[in-house]
Amino acid sequence: MVAASFLLAATALHTLLPAAAHESLASLPFHQTTVLASHNAHANRAAASSFFETLGINQDNSIYHQLSVDGVRALLLDIKLDGDELRLVHDPLDYGGFQEEMENNLVPFLEENEEAVVSLYLQTIGDVNTGNDEAIRAVILERLKETFSTLAVNGVPLKELTFKYDDAMWSNHNDWPTISEIVSANQRLFVFVDRSEYISSGFMNNQQVMRENDWRGIESCVSRFMWQSEKVSLSNNQQWSRLFFMNHWCCDSGADTFGTTVSEGSKLIGGGDNGWGVLYKRIKMCMNNIGGVKPNFIALDWVVESDEAKEVARFLNFGGALGTNQLCESDEDCATLSCNYSLKLCQCQECSDLGCGGCSTGDVCLAGGDGTLNECRSIESKQQDSSLQEQNSTQVQGSEIYYCGASYFDAVGNCSTGVQCPNGNGDCPDDEVCFGPFECTTDSDSESQEDQSQLSIADLLQPSLPTLEPSALLDSSSNTTISALSSAPSNAPTKSNATDPPVAPVTMYCGETYSDAKETCSDETACPGGYECPSGLICFSGVKCFTRPPSKAPTPQPTTLPPSTSPTEQTKEPSSEPTDSPVAPTKSPTAKPTFDFSNEYYCGSNYTMAQATCYTTTACPGGDPTVCEDGETCYSGIKCIAPPSVSPTLSPSFTSPTLSPVSGSENAPSGSSSTGGFGSSGTTTAPFVWPESSGETRSSTILYVLITGLHLVALLF
Description:
Blueprint: H1 19-27, E1 35-38, H2 51-54, H3 63-68, E2 79-82, E3 85-90, E4 93-97, H4 98-112, E5 118-121, H5 133-150, E6 152-153, E7 156-157, H6 179-184, E8 189-193, E9 204-205, H7 206-209, E10 210-213, E11 223-225, E12 243-247, H8 254-261, H9 276-290, E13 297-300, H10 307-318, E14 339-340, E15 345-346, E16 363-366, E17 375-378, H11 386-394, E18 400-405, H12 408-413, E19 433-439, H13 443-448, H14 457-461, E20 472-475, E21 480-483, E22 509-511, H15 514-519, E23 538-540, E24 602-604, H16 607-612, E25 633-635, H17 695-716
Parallel strand pairs: 1-13, 5-8, 8-9, 10-12, 12-13
Antiparallel strand pairs: 2-3, 3-4, 6-7, 10-11, 14-15, 16-17, 18-19, 20-21, 22-23, 24-25
Pfam family, one: PI-PLC_cat
Keywords: Signal
Organism: Cyclotella atomus
């Protein structure tokens, strides 16, 4: 049998949000929109015609229902060339003809939504067993041309609706056109393929315009292809932004993902795989690993459970409040990173600043009473708080609010004169996006204290020399204070008499989770600007850092005991052989190790490995891959802030000469040292390793083999 498979994604952007939100969506460029996708949309319960076909489904409703009711705006379809016809399949199971399903489901939806923008994502696999893949692809292309010529939306053939990136009308665009421009041009059908020979038919090669994460599991987020490429590589166009296609399903089969997505009589932790607590956390992981780029397509199993996923997409498009009220057992189960442990429900994250997680812009989150959730309150309802009232009445730029900008750094750098966007992207000019929340520091603020948001990674990591000041002891007998160190010099530098200006407390720290950020918070993990964290870590706000830093006071002078009148034990006889005299301690501290923190290029077999081993692996400044070892390449955008401790050693302490050596020296104390905290080698994240196959996976494999065998028997008879 001549066979080939496709992966097709059809994305429509029209009805994702209510009418008011759609107006803002229409003004967004294509590469700044986020929509949901249905993985194996054709493999649904409505299309299954036998018991065995129900075993291979990933969705519940028909394609039309997924588009019009479930909120899906993307379809992933597997297509096989069976004889002379394109069929929709999932492994050996057949779910109908491609053209028939498109005619009965996709076309009606497009006709009912005349402003819908649709994208098709096709991946050709071919028949590797016969070696006729080139011939097969040629036949597939001809059948696709026939389908696009035959099917029509309100009388217009699909081939006339394809988006043509090289059309003269887009020649003056520095990036993708807006949704409204695409609709006005009636080029609202995007087609992405994996074969360059298809480009002449009006299709775009997916690896020239997209980057995609690996689809296997949701515990990590690594590259499938073109992970570090920021721009497209089209003919005569290398300046538009690459689109990001994000795969998000946990397991190999729909039966396995059903249990982690669809709730049966009880809620799932974090809302399940398609809920706020799981999906939003994974999106932030992917965005951190890919350089802050949000996904344009989010592919899911069981989109019948997509209400919270639609809210996540809405949040990525327009901002707003993070979701709450999901079942939780820890803070990490919540998008807001705040779980009410008595009610076991996610709640807003308590804070008194604008931009609290789980609250709308302009609200604060107040602690709930016994047995109640935290509550979002508007500034106006909290006027009795004089300090907050003063902050709100003058709208001081020290508060955390949202600003428009062409990029995050543009919004930060020009916030004092930039446009504020409390309602999201709709408040911004056409060429800008809403960023935040973050604290905008004025010029006068910069004069009084250093603007920490402008510090580089190297600045944040530069260890400070000890600034120690003498401590005082209280004489309990006389209630007078005496200097503890007045009679003995200190080997550590003392603090000057000048009074340091007060420093505002930092409440933003890096971490893998909110709990991790809170447990490891220190000067080295602070991210006051919201963007200083390395790849793989997230900057969390509202962290109250209770971790006690190392003492900055010098060690008090040892107390000298009076002579003892009690007899002491007789010491052992001196050693019969002479020993070496003690070596005098060095009087200068060891040199501080050097490390180029400004470099963001490192070698590795993959991006995750390059990040995890950046301090010990080969650096490739400027992106030169020739310095890397075989099997490795040079990855960019890696901010290496987890090396072994680079803090300088303190000045040495001097001790009295040792007594004459005696036998039994094994009882002598030995020196020891330890390092730890953020950045120690013991905390380096290990590269992700796939677990061994479980019993459930083996059972799924056996079931798959049985289904395949039955299918072959059916073909023979």
